[in-house]
Q: What sequence folds into this?
Protein backbone atom coordinates (compact mmCIF):
# COMPACT_ATOMS: atom_id res chain seq x y z
CA UNK A 1 0.00 0.00 0.00
CA UNK A 2 2.87 2.36 0.86
CA UNK A 3 5.76 3.06 -1.49
CA UNK A 4 8.73 0.61 -1.40
CA UNK A 5 11.01 2.77 0.79
CA UNK A 6 8.26 3.29 3.37
CA UNK A 7 7.45 -0.45 3.35
CA UNK A 8 11.18 -1.14 3.91
CA UNK A 9 11.23 1.26 6.84
CA UNK A 10 8.14 -0.32 8.43
CA UNK A 11 9.68 -3.78 8.02
CA UNK A 12 12.99 -2.59 9.50
CA UNK A 13 11.26 -1.00 12.53
CA UNK A 14 9.66 -4.37 13.32
CA UNK A 15 13.10 -5.69 14.32
CA UNK A 16 12.75 -3.64 17.53
CA UNK A 17 11.56 -5.69 20.52
CA UNK A 18 7.88 -5.11 21.36
CA UNK A 19 7.11 -3.45 18.01
CA UNK A 20 4.44 -5.15 15.87
CA UNK A 21 3.11 -4.18 12.43
CA UNK A 22 0.73 -1.46 13.70
CA UNK A 23 3.33 0.20 15.96
CA UNK A 24 5.94 0.04 13.19
CA UNK A 25 3.55 1.77 10.79
CA UNK A 26 2.73 4.41 13.39
CA UNK A 27 6.45 5.00 14.05
CA UNK A 28 7.26 5.30 10.33
CA UNK A 29 4.42 7.77 9.74
CA UNK A 30 5.39 9.79 12.81
CA UNK A 31 9.06 10.01 11.79
CA UNK A 32 8.33 10.93 8.16
CA UNK A 33 5.48 13.34 8.90
CA UNK A 34 6.51 15.01 12.12
CA UNK A 35 10.17 14.52 12.96
CA UNK A 36 12.61 13.87 10.14
CA UNK A 37 15.49 15.39 12.11
CA UNK A 38 15.01 12.81 14.86
CA UNK A 39 14.84 10.05 12.25
CA UNK A 40 18.14 11.21 10.73
CA UNK A 41 19.72 11.37 14.17
CA UNK A 42 18.45 7.89 15.01
CA UNK A 43 19.91 6.52 11.77
CA UNK A 44 23.26 8.13 12.61
CA UNK A 45 23.26 6.88 16.23
CA UNK A 46 22.39 3.35 15.13
CA UNK A 47 25.16 3.29 12.56
CA UNK A 48 27.76 4.72 14.96
CA UNK A 49 26.79 2.27 17.71
CA UNK A 50 26.78 -0.75 15.38
CA UNK A 51 30.17 0.18 13.94
CA UNK A 52 32.00 1.23 17.07
CA UNK A 53 30.51 -0.41 20.16
CA UNK A 54 32.40 -3.54 21.13
CA UNK A 55 33.27 -5.20 24.42
CA UNK A 56 35.43 -3.92 27.25
CA UNK A 57 38.76 -5.78 27.25
CA UNK A 58 38.51 -6.43 30.98
CA UNK A 59 34.83 -6.92 31.89
CA UNK A 60 33.27 -7.60 28.45
CA UNK A 61 30.45 -5.07 28.93
CA UNK A 62 29.34 -3.10 25.86
CA UNK A 63 31.48 -0.03 25.23
CA UNK A 64 33.26 1.76 22.38
CA UNK A 65 36.33 2.20 24.60
CA UNK A 66 39.11 -0.39 24.90
CA UNK A 67 38.51 -0.58 28.67
CA UNK A 68 35.19 0.73 30.03
CA UNK A 69 34.71 3.61 32.46
CA UNK A 70 33.79 1.26 35.33
CA UNK A 71 36.97 -0.84 34.98
CA UNK A 72 39.06 2.35 34.67
CA UNK A 73 37.54 3.92 37.79
CA UNK A 74 40.26 3.82 40.47
CA UNK A 75 37.76 4.82 43.19
CA UNK A 76 35.95 1.49 42.91
CA UNK A 77 36.93 -1.58 44.94
CA UNK A 78 39.11 -3.63 42.57
CA UNK A 79 39.16 -6.61 44.96
CA UNK A 80 35.47 -7.42 44.34
CA UNK A 81 34.23 -8.86 41.04
CA UNK A 82 30.54 -9.41 40.30
CA UNK A 83 29.59 -11.84 37.50
CA UNK A 84 26.37 -10.98 35.61
CA UNK A 85 24.71 -12.29 32.46
CA UNK A 86 24.07 -9.03 30.56
CA UNK A 87 25.15 -5.35 30.40
CA UNK A 88 21.58 -4.45 31.49
CA UNK A 89 22.24 -6.35 34.74
CA UNK A 90 25.25 -4.07 35.37
CA UNK A 91 22.94 -1.08 35.05
CA UNK A 92 20.36 -2.57 37.42
CA UNK A 93 23.02 -3.20 40.09
CA UNK A 94 24.56 0.26 39.59
CA UNK A 95 21.13 1.86 40.00
CA UNK A 96 20.65 -0.01 43.30
CA UNK A 97 23.81 1.87 44.29
CA UNK A 98 25.36 -0.15 47.13
CA UNK A 99 27.89 -2.25 45.21
CA UNK A 100 31.19 -0.55 44.48
CA UNK A 101 33.31 -3.34 43.03
CA UNK A 102 33.90 -4.32 39.41
CA UNK A 103 31.85 -6.46 37.03
CA UNK A 104 32.32 -9.30 34.59
CA UNK A 105 29.67 -9.73 31.88
CA UNK A 106 29.08 -13.23 30.48
CA UNK A 107 26.70 -12.19 27.67
CA UNK A 108 24.54 -15.25 28.34
CA UNK A 109 24.70 -18.46 30.33
CA UNK A 110 25.99 -21.99 29.76
CA UNK A 111 23.55 -23.73 27.42
CA UNK A 112 24.96 -26.86 25.74
CA UNK A 113 21.72 -27.28 23.73
CA UNK A 114 22.34 -23.89 22.05
CA UNK A 115 26.07 -24.58 21.71
CA UNK A 116 27.03 -21.99 24.34
CA UNK A 117 30.11 -23.23 26.19
CA UNK A 118 32.62 -21.68 28.64
CA UNK A 119 34.63 -20.04 25.81
CA UNK A 120 31.55 -18.12 24.59
CA UNK A 121 31.05 -16.66 28.06
CA UNK A 122 34.65 -15.47 28.28
CA UNK A 123 35.47 -17.81 31.17
CA UNK A 124 39.12 -17.96 30.01
CA UNK A 125 39.35 -14.19 30.47
CA UNK A 126 37.60 -14.53 33.85
CA UNK A 127 40.15 -17.21 34.85
CA UNK A 128 43.01 -14.84 33.95
CA UNK A 129 41.40 -12.04 35.99
CA UNK A 130 41.11 -14.34 39.02
CA UNK A 131 44.76 -15.39 38.61
CA UNK A 132 46.08 -11.78 38.60
CA UNK A 133 47.97 -10.95 41.78
CA UNK A 134 48.86 -7.27 41.27
CA UNK A 135 47.48 -4.93 43.99
CA UNK A 136 46.13 -7.96 45.85
CA UNK A 137 44.05 -9.22 42.94
CA UNK A 138 40.43 -10.33 43.22
CA UNK A 139 39.52 -11.31 46.79
CA UNK A 140 35.85 -12.18 46.35
CA UNK A 141 33.84 -13.26 43.33
CA UNK A 142 30.12 -12.47 43.68
CA UNK A 143 27.98 -14.48 41.27
CA UNK A 144 24.78 -12.67 40.21
CA UNK A 145 23.61 -14.82 37.29
CA UNK A 146 19.80 -15.17 37.02
CA UNK A 147 18.10 -17.70 39.31
CA UNK A 148 17.08 -19.92 36.37
CA UNK A 149 18.20 -23.49 35.69
CA UNK A 150 20.89 -22.30 33.25
CA UNK A 151 21.90 -19.39 35.48
CA UNK A 152 22.35 -21.71 38.46
CA UNK A 153 24.36 -24.22 36.42
CA UNK A 154 26.57 -21.37 35.19
CA UNK A 155 27.02 -20.13 38.76
CA UNK A 156 28.09 -23.61 39.95
CA UNK A 157 30.52 -24.00 37.06
CA UNK A 158 32.15 -20.61 37.70
CA UNK A 159 32.24 -21.18 41.48
CA UNK A 160 34.16 -24.45 41.06
CA UNK A 161 36.72 -22.84 38.76
CA UNK A 162 37.16 -19.85 41.07
CA UNK A 163 37.74 -22.06 44.13
CA UNK A 164 40.66 -23.76 42.37
CA UNK A 165 42.22 -20.27 42.03
CA UNK A 166 41.86 -19.69 45.77
CA UNK A 167 39.27 -16.90 45.40
CA UNK A 168 36.30 -16.67 47.82
CA UNK A 169 33.04 -17.17 45.96
CA UNK A 170 29.57 -15.96 46.97
CA UNK A 171 26.11 -15.95 45.38
CA UNK A 172 23.64 -13.07 45.80
CA UNK A 173 20.64 -13.99 48.02
CA UNK A 174 17.35 -15.14 46.52
CA UNK A 175 14.03 -15.03 48.36
CA UNK A 176 10.99 -12.84 48.98
CA UNK A 177 11.60 -9.36 47.43
CA UNK A 178 11.69 -6.42 49.89
CA UNK A 179 8.23 -4.85 49.89
CA UNK A 180 6.73 -8.04 48.44
CA UNK A 181 3.66 -9.62 49.99
CA UNK A 182 3.86 -13.35 50.76
CA UNK A 183 0.36 -13.83 49.36
CA UNK A 184 1.52 -12.90 45.86
CA UNK A 185 4.92 -14.65 45.80
CA UNK A 186 5.27 -17.76 43.62
CA UNK A 187 5.79 -21.18 45.25
CA UNK A 188 9.33 -21.68 43.95
CA UNK A 189 10.53 -18.43 45.52
CA UNK A 190 8.76 -19.19 48.82
CA UNK A 191 10.27 -22.69 48.96
CA UNK A 192 13.72 -21.20 48.32
CA UNK A 193 13.12 -18.54 50.98
CA UNK A 194 12.34 -21.27 53.58
CA UNK A 195 15.31 -23.43 52.60
CA UNK A 196 17.68 -20.46 52.75
CA UNK A 197 16.33 -19.00 56.00
CA UNK A 198 18.91 -17.24 58.20
CA UNK A 199 19.29 -17.36 61.98
CA UNK A 200 17.89 -14.29 63.78
CA UNK B 1 26.22 4.49 33.21
CA UNK B 2 26.58 3.29 29.62
CA UNK B 3 29.29 4.54 27.27
CA UNK B 4 28.57 7.77 25.31
CA UNK B 5 27.60 6.09 22.01
CA UNK B 6 25.16 3.77 23.77
CA UNK B 7 23.67 6.70 25.71
CA UNK B 8 23.27 8.55 22.38
CA UNK B 9 21.49 5.56 20.87
CA UNK B 10 19.12 5.25 23.86
CA UNK B 11 18.32 8.98 23.65
CA UNK B 12 17.72 8.75 19.88
CA UNK B 13 15.39 5.75 20.27
CA UNK B 14 13.22 7.81 22.62
CA UNK B 15 12.13 9.94 19.64
CA UNK B 16 9.92 7.01 18.58
CA UNK B 17 6.28 7.40 19.63
CA UNK B 18 5.36 5.23 22.64
CA UNK B 19 9.00 4.56 23.60
CA UNK B 20 10.06 5.67 27.09
CA UNK B 21 13.47 5.42 28.79
CA UNK B 22 13.11 1.75 29.81
CA UNK B 23 11.92 0.59 26.38
CA UNK B 24 14.65 2.60 24.66
CA UNK B 25 17.28 0.94 26.86
CA UNK B 26 15.82 -2.49 26.17
CA UNK B 27 15.80 -1.80 22.41
CA UNK B 28 19.41 -0.56 22.43
CA UNK B 29 20.61 -3.61 24.39
CA UNK B 30 18.64 -5.95 22.13
CA UNK B 31 20.03 -4.42 18.94
CA UNK B 32 23.65 -4.35 20.15
CA UNK B 33 23.59 -7.77 21.82
CA UNK B 34 21.37 -9.84 19.58
CA UNK B 35 20.77 -8.29 16.19
CA UNK B 36 23.37 -5.89 14.82
CA UNK B 37 22.43 -6.74 11.25
CA UNK B 38 18.87 -5.56 11.87
CA UNK B 39 20.20 -2.39 13.51
CA UNK B 40 22.37 -1.66 10.48
CA UNK B 41 19.43 -2.31 8.17
CA UNK B 42 17.20 -0.03 10.24
CA UNK B 43 19.80 2.75 10.09
CA UNK B 44 19.98 2.35 6.31
CA UNK B 45 16.19 2.27 5.87
CA UNK B 46 15.74 5.37 8.02
CA UNK B 47 18.38 7.29 6.11
CA UNK B 48 16.99 6.27 2.71
CA UNK B 49 13.42 7.17 3.73
CA UNK B 50 14.39 10.53 5.24
CA UNK B 51 16.42 11.45 2.16
CA UNK B 52 14.13 10.22 -0.58
CA UNK B 53 10.51 10.09 0.59
CA UNK B 54 8.61 13.20 -0.40
CA UNK B 55 5.04 13.89 -1.43
CA UNK B 56 3.16 12.65 -4.48
CA UNK B 57 2.75 15.52 -6.99
CA UNK B 58 -0.94 14.76 -7.41
CA UNK B 59 -2.31 13.51 -4.08
CA UNK B 60 0.41 14.65 -1.62
CA UNK B 61 0.67 11.23 0.06
CA UNK B 62 4.14 10.12 1.20
CA UNK B 63 6.12 8.46 -1.60
CA UNK B 64 9.59 8.50 -3.13
CA UNK B 65 8.05 8.55 -6.61
CA UNK B 66 7.03 11.74 -8.44
CA UNK B 67 3.46 10.45 -8.70
CA UNK B 68 2.40 7.62 -6.36
CA UNK B 69 1.23 4.16 -7.39
CA UNK B 70 -2.40 4.89 -6.47
CA UNK B 71 -2.58 8.02 -8.67
CA UNK B 72 -0.85 6.15 -11.51
CA UNK B 73 -3.24 3.18 -11.32
CA UNK B 74 -5.46 3.38 -14.41
CA UNK B 75 -7.80 0.69 -13.04
CA UNK B 76 -9.04 3.00 -10.29
CA UNK B 77 -11.98 5.37 -10.69
CA UNK B 78 -10.39 8.73 -11.52
CA UNK B 79 -13.73 10.56 -11.18
CA UNK B 80 -13.83 10.08 -7.39
CA UNK B 81 -11.50 11.95 -5.04
CA UNK B 82 -11.41 11.30 -1.29
CA UNK B 83 -9.87 13.97 0.98
CA UNK B 84 -8.11 12.64 4.11
CA UNK B 85 -5.92 14.19 6.79
CA UNK B 86 -2.97 11.75 6.81
CA UNK B 87 -1.29 9.03 4.71
CA UNK B 88 -2.28 6.54 7.44
CA UNK B 89 -5.94 7.37 6.68
CA UNK B 90 -5.34 6.32 3.05
CA UNK B 91 -4.10 2.96 4.32
CA UNK B 92 -7.12 2.51 6.62
CA UNK B 93 -9.55 3.17 3.74
CA UNK B 94 -7.59 0.92 1.36
CA UNK B 95 -7.68 -1.88 3.93
CA UNK B 96 -11.49 -1.53 4.19
CA UNK B 97 -11.34 -2.30 0.48
CA UNK B 98 -14.59 -0.91 -0.97
CA UNK B 99 -13.39 2.49 -2.22
CA UNK B 100 -11.72 2.48 -5.63
CA UNK B 101 -11.25 6.15 -6.38
CA UNK B 102 -8.27 8.44 -5.77
CA UNK B 103 -7.13 10.32 -2.66
CA UNK B 104 -5.95 13.75 -1.65
CA UNK B 105 -3.89 14.02 1.56
CA UNK B 106 -4.05 17.31 3.51
CA UNK B 107 -1.29 16.42 6.05
CA UNK B 108 -3.31 18.03 8.82
CA UNK B 109 -6.39 20.22 9.22
CA UNK B 110 -7.10 23.96 9.26
CA UNK B 111 -5.87 25.32 12.58
CA UNK B 112 -5.42 29.12 12.67
CA UNK B 113 -4.09 28.91 16.24
CA UNK B 114 -1.16 26.77 15.02
CA UNK B 115 -0.76 28.87 11.88
CA UNK B 116 -2.03 26.12 9.57
CA UNK B 117 -3.92 27.73 6.68
CA UNK B 118 -5.29 26.55 3.31
CA UNK B 119 -1.87 26.81 1.61
CA UNK B 120 -0.29 24.39 4.13
CA UNK B 121 -2.97 21.80 3.34
CA UNK B 122 -2.34 22.05 -0.42
CA UNK B 123 -5.81 23.42 -1.12
CA UNK B 124 -4.46 25.30 -4.17
CA UNK B 125 -3.39 21.97 -5.66
CA UNK B 126 -6.78 20.49 -4.72
CA UNK B 127 -8.49 23.44 -6.48
CA UNK B 128 -6.46 22.74 -9.64
CA UNK B 129 -7.41 19.04 -9.49
CA UNK B 130 -11.10 19.94 -9.21
CA UNK B 131 -10.77 22.34 -12.17
CA UNK B 132 -9.23 19.70 -14.50
CA UNK B 133 -11.63 18.62 -17.21
CA UNK B 134 -9.64 15.93 -19.06
CA UNK B 135 -11.36 12.49 -19.14
CA UNK B 136 -14.38 13.98 -17.40
CA UNK B 137 -12.41 15.30 -14.43
CA UNK B 138 -13.45 14.81 -10.80
CA UNK B 139 -17.21 14.16 -10.51
CA UNK B 140 -17.50 13.68 -6.75
CA UNK B 141 -15.36 14.86 -3.86
CA UNK B 142 -15.72 12.68 -0.75
CA UNK B 143 -14.50 14.41 2.42
CA UNK B 144 -13.16 12.00 5.05
CA UNK B 145 -11.43 14.37 7.48
CA UNK B 146 -11.70 13.35 11.14
CA UNK B 147 -14.96 14.15 12.99
CA UNK B 148 -13.22 16.66 15.29
CA UNK B 149 -13.90 20.40 15.50
CA UNK B 150 -10.92 21.16 13.24
CA UNK B 151 -11.73 18.29 10.88
CA UNK B 152 -15.33 19.50 10.50
CA UNK B 153 -14.23 23.09 9.89
CA UNK B 154 -11.77 21.87 7.26
CA UNK B 155 -14.53 19.79 5.64
CA UNK B 156 -16.85 22.80 5.46
CA UNK B 157 -14.12 25.00 4.00
CA UNK B 158 -13.21 22.47 1.29
CA UNK B 159 -16.89 21.76 0.51
CA UNK B 160 -17.59 25.44 -0.16
CA UNK B 161 -14.60 25.75 -2.48
CA UNK B 162 -15.51 22.57 -4.35
CA UNK B 163 -19.11 23.69 -4.91
CA UNK B 164 -17.88 26.84 -6.66
CA UNK B 165 -16.06 24.51 -9.10
CA UNK B 166 -19.31 22.63 -9.81
CA UNK B 167 -18.12 19.36 -8.20
CA UNK B 168 -20.55 17.26 -6.12
CA UNK B 169 -19.36 17.08 -2.52
CA UNK B 170 -20.15 14.42 0.09
CA UNK B 171 -19.03 13.65 3.64
CA UNK B 172 -18.55 10.08 4.92
CA UNK B 173 -21.23 9.03 7.45
CA UNK B 174 -20.61 9.29 11.18
CA UNK B 175 -22.58 7.36 13.79
CA UNK B 176 -22.61 4.14 15.75
CA UNK B 177 -19.79 1.84 14.47
CA UNK B 178 -20.88 -1.48 12.91
CA UNK B 179 -20.62 -4.15 15.62
CA UNK B 180 -20.67 -1.46 18.31
CA UNK B 181 -23.00 -1.74 21.28
CA UNK B 182 -25.15 1.32 22.07
CA UNK B 183 -24.42 0.88 25.77
CA UNK B 184 -20.73 1.68 25.22
CA UNK B 185 -21.03 4.47 22.65
CA UNK B 186 -20.23 8.02 23.81
CA UNK B 187 -22.99 10.62 23.99
CA UNK B 188 -21.64 12.82 21.18
CA UNK B 189 -21.66 9.95 18.73
CA UNK B 190 -25.18 8.85 19.78
CA UNK B 191 -26.54 12.40 19.45
CA UNK B 192 -25.01 12.62 15.97
CA UNK B 193 -26.48 9.23 15.06
CA UNK B 194 -29.97 10.43 16.02
CA UNK B 195 -29.64 13.75 14.18
CA UNK B 196 -28.36 12.01 11.04
CA UNK B 197 -30.93 9.18 11.06
CA UNK B 198 -31.97 7.88 7.64
CA UNK B 199 -35.46 6.89 6.45
CA UNK B 200 -36.03 3.11 6.35
A:
Amino acid sequence: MFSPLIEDLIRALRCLPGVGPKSAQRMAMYLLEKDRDAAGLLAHSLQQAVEKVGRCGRCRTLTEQVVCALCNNTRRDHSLLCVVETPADVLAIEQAGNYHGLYFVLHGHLSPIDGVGPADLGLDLLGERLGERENGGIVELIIATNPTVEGEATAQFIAERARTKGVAVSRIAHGVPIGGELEYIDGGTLAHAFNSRTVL
